[in-house]
Amino acid sequence: MPIPTGAELALPAQQVEELIRTIVKGLRAFQMYLPNNPIYQRAEQAIHDAFLPIWSSTQQLTLSVVESDLVWSEQVVYRQPNRSESFAWMLYKDGMRLLTLKPGVEGEEVVRFLQVVSRARMLQADAADDLLTLLWEQNFQHIEYQFTEIITDSLTVLDPQMADLAMSQDASAQEQVREQVREDVVERAAGGVDPEDFDSTLYFLEEQETRSLKGQVDEEYTRDARKASLEALLDTFELQPTSLVREEILGIFDALFPNLLNKGEFRTVARLLREFRTVAQRVTVLDPPLLEHLQSFQARLSEPAILSQLLQSLEESAAMPEDEDIGEVLGELHAEGLETMLTFLPSLKRPAIRQILEVSVDRLGAANTEVVLDILGRTNSDALPGAVGLCRRLTLQVAVPALDKLVGHREAEVRQGAVEALAAIGSPGALTAIERALDDPERGVRLAAVTAVASKEYRGALRRLEAVVQGKGRHELERAEKRQFFETYAVVAGPPALPLLSDILEPRGLFRRRESSETRTCAAYAIARLRTPEARSILERIQQDKDLPVRNAAARALRDWVE
Amino acid sequence: MMEDRDLSRLSTGDEGYIRHAGRGFLLTFYAALRALKLYPVENTAVQKALDELQGTATALLVTENELEMRLAGDFLFINGTRLRLELDNFAAFSNLLTTLRGFEIGIFRTHSGVERREWQALLSILLSISADATIEDRYVALIERLGQAHTPHLEFEPETEVAEAINAQESREIAKRTYAQGVAVTKEVVNSIRMGRTSSVKKVKRAVQMIVDQVLTNETSIVGLTTLRDYDEYTFTHSVNVCIFSVALGRKIGLTKLQLYDLGMTALLHDIGKAKIPIEVLNKTSGLAEEEWRVIQAHPWRGAMTLFGLRAYDEIPYKSILVAHEHHMKSDLTGYPRSIRPRSLGIFSRIVAVADGFDAATTRRAYQTIPIEPDQVLREMWTNPRRGYDPIVVKALINLIGVYPIGTCVILDTFEVGIVSQANPDREFLNRPVVRIAIDPTGGILSPPGLAVDLTERSADGNYVRSIVKVTNPDRYNLTVGDYFL
Predict the structure, then answer these.
(1) Quick check: helix, strand or coil at residue B330?
(2) Between A and B, how many residue pairs show a Cβ–Cβ distance under 8 A?
(3) Residue B458 carries which DSSP code?
(4) DSSP code of residue B475
C-alpha cells in the first residue's frame, strides 16, 4: 500500500535540508579522498543514514533544480549563491531540472552519482561529454532525472499530412478506391509471399547463429580499431591520387602524432613510420612536396623539441610502457635525435627506460660517430656527459683526441666521464690523456684516473704516482684515496718500488722524519702488492711496530697474501 | 479499446488555455488539500483555499463545459491536454499524481453545478482514508463515502485500459521528439562540417542515448517513425533511421545498453562523409555520370577522414571511423572503397551495412523515385549473396521487423488496405503483423493513425478475421505511410 500523501506533507523540510547538506559534504569528501580513507567512508555512512528518516516518510524525493537552489515541496532546501561552489548549479548548468531519488539510492548509487557530478564539473564547455551523457552511462535504478531538451528551436515538426485527404474524399472517389482494391486483389504480385506458403521458421535465429553474433560482438571490442582505422587512412592515401586528399591525410597524421606519443602509443608510432616508408616506395607517382612531407615524420620525431617531450613523458608516465614498444619507436630515430637523447640519458631515473635508451643511443652513436665527435667538440653542450658515457660503452677510439681535451673541462662530471671513457678505450693515446687527471682538483676524477692507471699498469704515470707517494702531490688526499695511489704505484712500478715504500714504512736514520700513521699504513698495503719475499719479510717485521694501525695493516696484508 | 481517432483530440484544441487553467486547478486543489491537512475546516486559510478551488473549477467548466482529469502513468491530463511539469507546479503535480495513484483513480470528472461543500467533502474524505491504514480498497471506500456525503457533481473512474491507450499516445510523442532531435542533431553536424565549423559531439551523444532509451522502452514507436521518408531531408532522416534500425538489431542480438550506444554512434555518423559531397551531386535527379558516381563512392573514406579531423572529440572515435569507412565494403570486401591492407569487417560495420541497405532501398530519393517494397528488399538482401550482406544479420533484421516490415502497405482479404505497424511478437506469426487499416472495404480512407488490427485475431468459427493477400505500393492509394506513425 502506498504511503499516504498526508505523510509526505508531514516530512519536515529541515530533514531534507539536512540530507542535502550531508550530500554536499559527502561530495567534497569524495573529491578529496580515496575510498579507503576513513573520512570518505564516514561521509558515505553519513549520507546513508541521512536518507533513513526520509524514506520513513515518503517513497521518493523529488527536487527541483533552480539555478543555484534545490527546491522541494515549494521550499528551498539548498541555496548557494556562489555558482562555482553550488551543487545545484553543477546540475543546472548541464540541463538538469528535476532530480528524483528513490529508496535504495543510499547504497552505492548516490556515491556513484556524486562522483559523476564531480567529474562533469571539471569538463570544459566544448568537451565531448556533459553531466547528462555521463549520467546516462551509469544506468541508475534509483535515480531519475529530467532535463531540458538540447534542441528545441529547430525541431522538425512531425505532423500527419493526410488528415485533409481523408476528410475531402467524396462518394465517387471512394467508389474508385474500392474498385481499385478489388482489381489489385485479383492479381497478386509476382514473387509475393503467399501466407499459406510462408514458413516463418526460416527467419528464426538459431542458437548457434545467436552465439556466433555474440562472439563477433566480443571480437568487436577486442579488435584493434585504431590499427584498422589508421590502415584505412593509409589505404586511402595510396588509392586516391588527388594531391589535396593526400595532403589532408598527412595533415591528419600531423595532428595524430603528438596525440599518440602523449598517450604512449609507441608501437603505433613505430608502425606508422614503417608504413610511411613502405608507402613512399610503393606509390610511384607522388608529388615531391608530399613525398617530403611523408618522409619528414621520422625526421620530426628526432627533432629536439618533440623528442625531449617524448623522453620526458616516458620518464613521468605513471604506467610503464612495454620495453618493446619504446624500443620500436626509438629504433626509428635519426641521428639528429642523438644529442637530445644524450642530454636526457644521464638524468633518467627509471633504470628500465635508461637501459632501453642506452641501446638506441649506442646504435645511433656507432653509426654516426661524426655526430658524437661534434657533440664532444662543443664544450657547452648539455649532452656532453651522455656523449662521454657513449664513448666509454662503445670504446670509441676515434674520440680519444676529443676526450683528451675534455679531461681539462671545467665540469668535474665531464672530466670524470672522459677519464672513464679513455680508460675503457685503453689505447696508448688514451692512457697518456689520463695522466694529468691524476692531479685533478676533484677527488672523483683522480680516483677514476688512478683506477685506470692501475688496471692498465700504465708506466707512463709512474712519475706522477711517485710524486704523490713522496708527498709531493698537489692535493691533500684522504686515506682511501691515498691508499689507492700507493697501491697503484706499487702495481705500476713493481719490485723497484720497494725501497721507496719501505723507507716510508720504516724510516732509517736518526734525523729521518717519521711519516704519519696513515701514510705508513698505505705504504704497508702497497708493499703487500709487490708479492716478493723481501716485501713479505718487511711486513712480518712491521707486525711488531708500535703503531697499532700499521701493525693491523701489516697483519691484514699478510693474511690476504697470495703467492 | 478506445478508438485511436478519439485520442487525436489530445493534440488539438486550445491547448494553451487548458494548460494554463488546468495548472490553476491543480495548484488550488493541492493548496486546499494541504490547508485542510494542516488546519481545521473553519480556519480562514482553509476557507480561502476552498473558494479558490471552486473558482478555478468553475472557470474551466464555464469555458470548456467539462472538467476531466485523467491519470496515465506519470502524466496528468486535463480535458485531454497533458499538463506539463513546470517549476511552479511540480510539487502539486507530483503530490496529486501520487494521491490519485494511491486511490487507483483513472479519471476524475467534475460536472457543472459543483458546490463548494462537495470539494470540502472530497478533500476531507481523501485525507481521512489516507490516514487510515486499515482500509484495503481505497477506491471503494472513496466511492462509498462520497455517496454518503452526497457529491453528485464529482465522478470517478478507476484506472483502466484507457491509460494504456494514452500511454501509447505518449510513447508516440516521446518517440517523435526523439526522432526529431536525432534529425536536428544530424543536420547540425553535417551543416557544420560543410561550413568547416566544429560541431557539438555532446548533442550527438545525447541524441543517440535518447534513441537507445527509446528502443529499450518502446521499440515499436520509434521503429515506426523510420517510415517517415522525407524527400528533402533524406540525408538526415536516413542517418537517424539507420541508427534506429542498428540499435534495434543490436538489441535483438543481445548487446548491452552501452554497446548499443557505441553501435548507435557509429550508425548515426556512418554517412558523415556525404557532408563533403557537393549537394548538387547528392540530389541529382537524373542518372549519375561516371565521375559523379565516383564522387558518391568517395563518401566512406571521406567520412573516415572527417571523423579523424573532428576536433571536438576528446578521444578519436575509431569505431565510428571504421564503420564510416567499411559500410559499403560488403562482407567479402568486393564493395567500395578498395582495401590494400588485410581487413575483415567488424560486426558493427555489418549491422550498419544491413540497416543502411534496407533503409536506402525502401526510400524514395532524388534518383530513386519509386522505392522498392520492404518485403522485396528483405528478400533480395536475404537471397542474393552478391549484395554482400551478412546473412545472419539480415536474418536478425527480418526477425526484428518481420517478413512484412513496418511501413509495408498490404491488401487484406477483406478488401481493406493497411499499413503494417508492428511485427507480431509471437515468432510463430511473423507473417501476421499488426496492421493499421487505412482504407475500409467501401474504399473510404481513414485518417491517420487509422484503425489498429491484429491479424492473428480469429472469428468465432476459428478462422482468421483478416489475412494479407498482397503487398502493394501506397502511392496507388495516395497514402503517406509515415503519417500512420505520427
Answers:
(1) coil
(2) 290
(3) B
(4) G
